[in-house]
Amino acid sequence: MELRQLRYLASIVESGSISRAAQRLYVAQSALSQQLSKLEAELNTKLLHRTATGIRLTEDGRKFCEHANQILRNVEDAKRAFSDNPNTPVGTVTLGIPQSVSAALALPLFVAAKQRLPRVTLLITEELTGNLENQLIDERLDMSVLFDDGKLNRFDYKALAREQLFLVSTPDFLGISISAAISPSDALRQPLILPSYPHGVRIQVERMARSLSQFESNLVAEINSVAILRSALLAKLGATILPMAPVRDLLDTGLLVAQEIASPAATRTLCLCTPSGAAPSQAGAAVSKLVAEVVGTLCEDGRWLGAAALNVP
User: 166-265 is classed in which CATH architecture?
Assistant: First the structure.
């Protein structure tokens, strides 16, 4: 197996066809096809399905491409590590961010990383929290922002911030005053749209219900997408329990309102987690520090509504 075969495969997948990849690489199409065939023969599996409109990865092809892309990133990281100042963080860092956090954190973190860590390639994955946990366990992520559900001891972690949870709906949906905080029992009686277990705020909502000996909230729908949840709220299909960050734009325009829930349990703690016992790379350590600093700044200057920093470097 040769590195050029991995690069050829990556280019074919990115281009969507062998002919376009050949043009992009300035390689004869026949030579590209030959190297792909050699790679498939060595692996004893089919990597691509060829169609009239291009190519499509097989299941084995998808799995192999994950390994190939990681190998290519590692090669580039190794090259840069020996061509730069040894004190300059260099490399690729993969970071997971939950859907309900990305609106507040992702862009400011990207901007800060570009300015302060120019030789670090930051790859951010936005996902449901349950999926991020699995990817971190499998070490497909270098680190991830997760919520403290009492089970984070399987990772190494540090607390970043505490977020307040609110009852969120259109202004006229619930027909109750939002001038004062709502009790947790009243919040749980509302027709709620929540993510399925164990994603997002679902664990925290169930914990709040158990604290009241009220084991079931008034659940009318389960939606595992922030975008679809926002649409469902605007369509007045229900209310939800969320922090303010993922709906801030709709709160600012008055399309949605957020009512504070009067309970210490109506909060969640955000933590930065890494695989247990894993030694961080220089780039990983730099990104970890930067995440904590950016979270602290966003909380302190009021850009992350309803959040308070816990671990400011």
Answer: 3-Layer(aba) Sandwich (3.40)
